[in-house]
CENP-V/GFA domain-containing protein
Amino acid sequence: MKTYHGSCHCQAIRFTADIDLADGSMRCNCSFCRKIRCWATVVKPENFRLLAGEAELSEYQFGAKNERHFFCKHCGVRPFGIAHSPRRGRFYGVSVSCLDDATIAELMAAPVTYVDGLNDNWDTPPAETAYL
Ligand SMILES: [Zn+2]
């Protein structure tokens, strides 16, 4: 587990999160993740700390509203979301792409699990993943 510093593009939103990138990351084919090119990792609430920018966050929900996606009001980047699932409980979905001090080697080594969020089928990867 390593403590990473993360931010949106304009730095209004800043956070730290304790993450083991070797534990994996996720890419999803749902209508939302596809549009924002989401690459996320699951972080337990006790391992996430918002350092700055709470008032600069805008929130978006859609569909079953299982996840609250947070965006910077200024630059539009989504640093994290907060979700709840029966399997994981409450968790943060932190955008791996917002981790400022993750090395390229760490990012390349992070395993990626592809999930079929489009069909709410979380146990079987989508048939096609190269475009995600
Ligand atoms: Zn920003």
The mean pLDDT is 94.
